[in-house]
Amino acid sequence: MIPVTKTFFPPLENYSIQLERIWKNEWLTNRGELVKELEQNLKNYLKVPNIICTTNGTLPLQIALKVLAGAGEVITTPFSYVATTAAIVWENCTPVFVDIHPEYFTIDETKIEAAITEKTTAILATHVFGNPCNVKEINKIANKHNLKIIYDAAHCFGVNYEGQSIFKYGDISTCSFHATKLFHTGEGGAIFCNDEELNNILYYSHNFGHNGPHDFHGVGINAKMSELQAAMGLSVLPYMVKINASRKNVINYYDSQLAFTKIRKMKIREGTSWNYSYYPIVFENEKDLEKTLRILNHNKIFPRRYFYPSLNTLNYVEVGIMRQSEMISKSILCLPLYAQIQIEVLEEIVNIINKID
Fold first, then answer.
1. pTM for the complete prediction?
2. Does domain 240-354 have CATH number 3.90.1150.10?
3. 27 with 199: CB under 8 angstroms?
4. Which of 80, 82, 134, 325 is least crowded, fewest Cβ atoms below 10 Å from its Cβ?
C-alpha cells in the first residue's frame, strides 16, 4: 500500500540515546531538559527569536485565539484543515469566511476588508501546503483596522518568505509537529511570536497560567510537550537536510513527468523558499478526480483529498457560498510524497494520471 505520506523514523539507536537521557533524569514532562534543548535547537535552525513547543498543533491555535481574538468575529479561510475553523468555534469566536485565491489557494487578501465589521477582532489565515499568504497586504489591512493576525502555519516548517522564516510574520504563528508532517515529534506543535511581552503571555497560557509553583499570571491550559515527544524531535531534526533533498527529488519528478494537460499545480508565491511539504494537483472537475482516485486506489495507491470539504459547508457554521474554495476542494488531490518513496511507484502514479481522458 502506498499512502499519501509516511512518517520519517530516525535510526532507533538515535532515539534510544535520547530515551536514556529521560530515564537518567527521571523526568517525563513539565518542561524538562529535552524540551528546552529542542526549543533552542529549533530556534537556531529556523532563525526565530521565540518558540514554545506544545503537545499538539491545535492547542496553539486555541491559545492564540483565546489571547488575541476575545470571542469576536475572526476572518478566516474556508480552505484549510478542519482544526482551523474548529478552534475558532471552540474558543467561542465566530468564523467569517473569505474566499481563496484560485492559484495560490491562500485567503484572497483583496476580499478581506469587505468582511470586516465592528465585531471583527482578528484574522486567522492559513499558509496552505506551505505556500505563504500575502502577508504584506494582510498586515496593512490589520494595521488599518486594528486587528490581530494569527497564521496557521501547520505545513510551514522550514519555509522562508523574502529571506526570513514564515513564522516571523503576524502576531502569532502556529505549527504542527504531527507524525505526518515534514518535521515531527510523533504528536506535537509550536507557537511562534516575535513580541516578548505577548510571548510571555503565551508561555504561561500553555502551562495552566503558572507564575511559579503557587502563583498564577492568569488563565491557562495544559499544552506542554512531553520529554518523549522532544526525544523524537531531537532525533529527527539532524536529518532535515536529507529529508528535504529527498522530497525535492520527488517533486522534481512529478514536475517533469506529469503531462499537465488536464491538471494544474498550485502556484508558489514569489519570494518563497518552499519546503516541499505537499504535492497538490487540481483536476478540471470532480468527475476526473474521482475516476483517477478509483484507479489509483485499485492499484493500492492512496493519495488524499486535502482539503475536502470546503469548511464553509461544515454543519456547525453559517455562511454563504465560497465559490473558489468549494470548486478547488472538490477537484484537488495531494499525491504521495515522502522521503522513502521509490521511483517505480512514482512512475506508476504518473502513468495513471497522464492517461486521464
1. 0.97
2. yes
3. no
4. 82
